[in-house]
Amino acid sequence: MNTPRDLAMGLVDTGSATERQMLQACLAYMSWDEVSDMLKTNEFLDILPDGYAEEHFQVNPSPYCMANKTS
Question: What is the pTM of this model?
Answer without folding.
Answer: 0.67
